């Protein structure tokens, strides 16, 4: 049968057209309802203000004493992210066992619900709640990162366990190894590299989160940034932002190297 | 090869012990710097404070005016995310076109890019890196200083951060597509934009839209969080209630927030499933 | 330890993906060495798995091991029986990133308390035993290598070294030579038979290589389509019987070829 070239196809199907139109409407409604200061945004004065504002950053504050303080805050942020991720790795892998269904269906459901709850609330909200429990300072931030990341890692690790081929464990158990020993000798060596790389990915994520947690009072670079911005000390703020960017780049490359080492 | 009947010692043992020692040596200052004092959680004063705050959760606030206020704040959060992402999208498109190597005309002709194109391309990439490296909350904090409290700062903060992320990932998606169709179009004299529309987009549209939907979901979380620095929406209300230790309001807002995140998650995964 | 199967049927749903067993009557005395031969898909693997209590036979048949009926016991008591035998699958399921020493020592797990098993993951316990077991297969050089750096044949012998580590006195070995060249095949089979003789253990071994089976095993069981075709001392097995066993089973006519390909692929696998 020869192809019929004259066959008429609508360029856009009606369902897609309706979707696109409602999307446009949604976007329009968003802009309309927000009362954005368009005039302030695009007027000459706004550009002028912004230019002034960002000009105020230069030159960044580089006095010896201030750099020392920034260094201290950088270490604090790094520590928050690393310790938070470490705790989350521990509890995440512990919760991954019930969440992967190894201890029964009910344990799986209950654990997954808990993990979802931990995961859905962002670090910053956790930090606000935990500030009430442990007071201002980096410990609240560390705990906030740990709690949120436990939810994320627990679920990822449980999924990794569930997707594992079972025959290696089965072959140990058929020869009378206990389930716990079979888990350690067959399942664990298979999932461990994956667990490590998930943990390192979350660490990269958590260094970004740790840098801003201070804004609500949980210590580190964020707290310094908020402090100096509140006092309009722009040059100091610029140094803090540069330190944040450097720290993020440093952790990214460290995590990249470690991930390659583990997956080799 | 000599027959060696004795069991050799484990070659990994020494490096394992060294790694453990190094880990312990590194861990100590980290624990000190993060003021890791878990017992603080359980001393009487903080238990009292936490208990008092948590007891305040019940019953959750449900007066009519509070719920209306909350509804408005929730819509504001969604609107900030949507408007911010739209602006980010508009900004990301030119950057993507600049950063994508597949669309380079000069590389096609001589095998390598002209210096000036290379410079522009690299500059575009560096701007994208800078935009996405500064956390959205820091952008918000800075912009609140310029535009004052309110949603404008939030929208712009999302627009800036997400244009960096979208630009980078869009360029990656476009480059991962089959380069030959595009090259044929470019070789036959079509313009860059035409080559994009007819060569690359048909193959990658689903992936592009799916990534955008995923980012919209992230933007909703982000816009909640940005409320804490005064960029409007549900986050700002939560911050206020938290400062007044109004547990019942905080609890209602947490519930609404969880619902919102679940809905955004559902919508974005629904879209992605339909597309891919 | 003696094994007795009377009118055993195993259906597909008990062993999905493998072949059913029909009306199997088999009695193996303690310390006997038996070779299972037959074309691919005859049910050799299913029979070994049934003997290892990995597949449950249909009701109506009888299966006893040293006079005990494992399927009449409680699951816990049946599990306790499992120390007595060792099932070595054809492709040993070893985690690729595990080190050989750990993989071999896993054969000791039934004897070890959990704390010892966990300590051994960090610092191998009884590494000398693993070394000795590997030495019998000339693999002692590989003691601290990672499993994914081994060739297919080395991995197969590593799985058999695990068998030597166990305390079992019934060896159920599935195609132990499928990835080995003729010289290594003979050496490996000799190690298995020596160990079985030394322990007075029962050895039941499925084999593709009919010549090796006839050369080394006093008793030969021929399986085809899930049934036992013959069960005879090797002197009474004739060429006609072998020919009839493998008739029209084109899969086995070319056994050497797929095995060679398998070995070659395993050997060339990147480290």
Describe the structure.
The complex is a heterotrimer of chains A (264), B (276) and C (271). Chain A is mainly alpha-helical and 264 residues long. Chain A has a single domain (68-263), classed as MetI-like (MetI-like fold, Orthogonal Bundle), CATH 1.10.3720. Chain A has eleven helices and no strands. The longest helix of chain A has 36 residues, at 64-99. Chain A is globular. Chain B has 276 residues and is mainly alpha-helical. Chain B has a single domain (64-275), classed as MetI-like fold. Helix content of chain B is 78%, strand content 0%. Chain B has eleven helices and no strands. Chain B has helices at residues 12-33, 44-55, 64-99, 105-110, 115-133, 136-147, 151-176, 179-187, 192-226, 234-243, 247-275. The longest helix of chain B has 36 residues, at 64-99. Chain B is extended. The N and C termini of chain B lie far apart (57 Å). The model of chain B has no long low-confidence stretch (mean pLDDT 81). Residues 251-271 of chain C have low confidence and may be disordered. Chain C has a domain at 3-90 and 169-268: P-loop containing nucleotide triphosphate hydrolases (Rossmann fold, 3-Layer(aba) Sandwich), CATH 3.40.50.300. In chain C, the strands form two sheets. A six-stranded mixed beta sheet of chain C has the order 5-6-7-3-8-9, sandwiched between helices. Chain C contains eleven helices and nine strands. In chain C, helix 5 (127-136) crosses helix 6. Chain C has helices spanning 44-51, 75-81, 100-105, 114-122, 127-136, 152-165, 182-199, 210-216, 239-246, 250-253, 256-268; strands at 3-10, 21-28, 33-37, 62-65, 85-88, 170-174, 202-206, 219-224, 227-233. Chain C has 271 residues and is α/β, with parallel strands linked by helices. Chain B binds chain C through residues 1, 4-5, 7-8, 10-13, 16, and chain C through 99, 101, 122-124, 127-128, 130-132, 135, 140-141, 143-144.
């Amino acid at each position: 049968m020869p192809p019929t070239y004259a066959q008429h196809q609508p360029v856009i199907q009606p369902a897609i057209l309706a979707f696109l139109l409602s999307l446009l409407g949604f976007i329009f409604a968003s802009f309309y309802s927000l009362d954005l200061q368009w005039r302030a945004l695009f007027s000459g004065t706004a550009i002028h203000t912004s230019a002034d504002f960002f000009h105020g950053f230069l030159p960044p504050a580089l006095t010896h004493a201030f750099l020392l303080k920034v260094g201290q805050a950088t270490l604090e942020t790094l520590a928050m992210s690393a310790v938070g991720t470490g705790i989350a790795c521990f509890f995440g892998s512990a919760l991954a066992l019930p969440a992967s269904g190894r201890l029964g269906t009910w344990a799986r459901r209950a654990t997954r619900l808990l993990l979802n709850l931990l995961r859905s609330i962002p670090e910053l909200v956790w930090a606000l709640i935990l500030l009430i429990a442990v007071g201002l300072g980096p410990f609240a931030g560390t705990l906030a990162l740990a709690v949120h990341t436990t939810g994320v890692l627990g679920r990822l690790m449980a999924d990794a366990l569930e997707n594992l081929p079972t025959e290696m464990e089965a072959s140990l158990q058929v020869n009378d190894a206990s389930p716990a020993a079979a888990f350690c000798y067959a399942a664990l060596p298979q999932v461990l590299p994956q667990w490590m790389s998930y943990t390192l990915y979350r660490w990269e994520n958590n260094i970004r989160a740790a840098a801003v947690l201070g804004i609500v009072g949980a210590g580190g670079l964020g707290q310094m940034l908020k402090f100096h911005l509140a006092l309009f000390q722009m040059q100091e703020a610029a140094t803090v932002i540069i330190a944040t960017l450097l720290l993020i780049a440093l952790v990214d490359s460290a995590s990249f190297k470690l991930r390659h080492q583990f997956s080799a | 090869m000599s027959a060696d009947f004795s069991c050799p010692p484990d070659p990994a043992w020494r490096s394992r012990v060294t790694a453990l020692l190094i880990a312990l040596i590194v861990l100590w200052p980290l624990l000190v710097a993060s003021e890791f004092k878990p017992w603080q959680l359980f001393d009487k004063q903080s238990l009292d404070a936490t208990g008092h705050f948590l007891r305040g959760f019940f019953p959750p606030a449900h007066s009519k005016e509070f719920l209306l206020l909350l509804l408005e704040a929730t819509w504001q959060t969604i609107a900030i995310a949507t408007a911010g992402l739209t602006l980010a999208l508009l900004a990301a498109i030119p950057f993507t076109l600049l950063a994508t190597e597949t669309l380079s005309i000069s590389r096609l002709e001589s095998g390598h890019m002209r210096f000036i194109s290379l410079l522009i391309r690299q500059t575009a990439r560096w701007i994208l890196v800078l935009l996405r490296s500064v956390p959205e909350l820091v952008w918000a904090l800075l912009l609140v200083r310029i535009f004052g409290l309110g949603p404008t700062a939030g929208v712009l903060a999302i627009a800036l951060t997400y244009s960096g992320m979208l630009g980078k990932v869009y360029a990656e998606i476009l480059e991962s597509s089959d380069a030959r169709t595009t090259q044929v179009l470019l070789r036959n004299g079509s313009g860059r934009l035409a080559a994009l529309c007819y060569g690359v987009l048909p193959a990658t549209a689903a992936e592009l839209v799916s990534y955008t939907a995923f980012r919209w979901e992230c933007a909703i979380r982000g816009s909640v969080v940005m409320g804490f620095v005064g960029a409007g929406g549900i986050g700002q209300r939560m911050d206020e209630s938290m400062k007044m230790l109004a547990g019942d309001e905080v609890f209602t807002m947490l519930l609404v927030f969880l619902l919102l995140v679940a809905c955004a998650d559902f919508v974005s995964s629904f879209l992605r499933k339909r597309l891919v | 330890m003696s094994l007795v199967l009377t009118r055993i049927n195993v259906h597909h749903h008990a062993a999905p993906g493998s072949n059913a067993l029909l009306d199997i009557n088999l009695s193996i005395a303690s310390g006997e060495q038996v070779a299972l031969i037959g074309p691919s898909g005859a049910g050799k693997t299913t029979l070994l798995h049934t003997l290892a209590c990995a597949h449950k036979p249909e009701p109506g048949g009888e299966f006893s091991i040293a006079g005990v009926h494992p399927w009449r016991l409680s699951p816990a008591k049946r599990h306790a029986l499992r120390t007595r035998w060792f099932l070595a699958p054809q492709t040993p399921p070893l985690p690729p990133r595990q080190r050989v020493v750990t993989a071999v020592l896993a054969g000791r797990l039934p004897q070890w308390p959990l704390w010892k098993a966990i300590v051994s993951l960090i610092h191998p316990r009884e590494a000398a035993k693993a070394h000795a077991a590997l030495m019998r297969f000339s693999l002692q050089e590989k003691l601290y290598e990672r499993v994914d750096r081994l060739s297919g044949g080395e991995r197969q012998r590593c799985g058999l070294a695990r068998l030597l580590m166990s305390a079992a006195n019934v060896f159920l070995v599935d195609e132990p030579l499928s990835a080995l060249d003729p010289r290594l095949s003979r050496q490996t089979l000799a190690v298995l038979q020596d160990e079985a003789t030394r322990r007075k253990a029962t050895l039941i071994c499925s084999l593709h290589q009919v010549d090796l089976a006839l050369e080394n095993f006093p008793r030969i069981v021929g399986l085809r389509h899930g049934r036992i075709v013959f069960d005879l001392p090797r002197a009474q097995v004739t060429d006609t019987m072998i020919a009839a066993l493998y008739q029209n089973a084109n899969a086995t006519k070319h056994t050497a070829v797929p095995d060679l390909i398998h070995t070659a692929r395993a050997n060339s696998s990147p480290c």
